[in-house]
Amino acid sequence: MDYPADWEEVKLLDHVKLIQGLTYTPENVKTHGTLVLRSSNIQNGQLSLNNNVYVNSQISKEKMIQDKDILICVRNGSSELIGKSCVLPSMNNTTFGAFMSVLRGDSTGYIAKIFENDIVQKQIRGRSSATINQITKKDFESIKIPLPPLAEQKAIAETLETFDEHIKNLSELIEKKKAIRDGALEDLMSGRIRLKNFSGDWEIKKLGGEYSIIMGQSPSSSSYNQDKKGLPLIQGNADIKNGITFTERYTSQPTKICEANTTILSVRAPVGTVNQSDQKVCLGRGVCAIIGEISNFIYYLMKYNEKSWKKLEQGSTFTAVSRKVINDFEIFIPKDKTEQQAIAETLTAFDDEIKALEAERDKIKKIRDGAMNDLLTGKVRLKNYGK
Fold it and tell me: Which of 3, 226, 274, 357 has a CB 3.0–4.6 Å from the CB of 7, allowing a cystine?
């Protein structure tokens, strides 16, 4: 690739130091002590301090985390995780494990940005062992990067960090909104808190007595296709938990069909996962559809009851619930349909706000990715730099 004339193409390790992670034994692991960062501590390019591991052992000063260290996954059972990274703050009494490494000495923040870009990631994917899923010190020694003058490095990093800070703030706001929505779901669907102007009775009903249940039935395997012809086929929990539109299976011979905005429940392995279709779909054996007058109320009602299905699972090797169990499932709902509608509208408003924030965050991510590619290759120069 051609870079600006005042840029250099250099070896990565000529400008930062590679430090390999701490090797420790199971006997060293304790309930407290020195925190050991692992690949699971990198989530979406950010440091995550969940599911932590601590050790009690002698650790050299070099292997203790320093401010602006770039933490990298260098060995993993999944090849997709090789090369994922994040920038670390100053952290007391913290090291990193043997499957990790850090790059140290990134004074401008530019190295951290270019490391996550395809300029470096393509080189990592080209060198990572197909059998061991790792990138070695020798591999690092061969990685090359474009390097602008020092002041421009800093300006590029600061510009991209502005995008990252905005994305981070939006992500944190989204999580706060989700927590508020989840709290409102618990309060409103249990009847613990009532909306203004509603005071009528609630009643216990059977799910099948209040709503129509359509049990899924998978079409013949010969009707499956991967070219997105026909209807999306929803087979079970895996197709529901991350959003129904992510399914990869389509069928040209649909059997049981449900329309958009229908609540879909997994009835096999595991039971109880709930989502709402955003388009017409074909129901496979592992799901059922729940249909009624106020579709959004049904969706939130079933989300509220997700945890209740676990105790109804049957079978030691393949958990499932029958049509009878689904029909007899007890629900607690307002008698007044206008209260049901009001609850659904209130919770939908929360979700609409969350979706709008997610759309804004995704838009900023796309802009940031485009800016990163332009700035890190010199295709676009910041004001006062280059022509």
Answer: 3
- Residue range of the domain that includes 370: 149-194+336-387
End-to-end CA distance of the chain: 19
H/E element, 369: helix 337-377
CA distances from residue 156 to 86, 108, 114, 117, 148 in whole angstroms, order as listed: 17, 9, 10, 13, 9
pTM of the complete model = 0.84
- CB atoms inside a 10 Å sphere around CB 338: 12
β-pairing, 224-225 vs 250-251, is: antiparallel
Task: Give the residue from 131, 147, 163 where a domain finishes.
Answer: 147
Place of tokens 């676009």: 380
d(CA 302, CA 377): 50
Together in a domain, 160 and 285:
no
Beta bridge partners of 324: none
Determine the 3-state secondary structure of 375 from DSSP.
helix
The four Cα atoms 88, 90, 96, 100 give a dihedral, to 10 degrees, of 20
Q: Is residue 2 part of a domain?
A: no
Low-confidence ranges of the chain (pLDDT < 50): 130
Return d(Cα 384, Cα 156) in angstroms, integer: 12
- pLDDT digits 0-9 by tens, 87-107: 999 999 999 999 999 999 999
Which tokens belong to 146? 């474009």
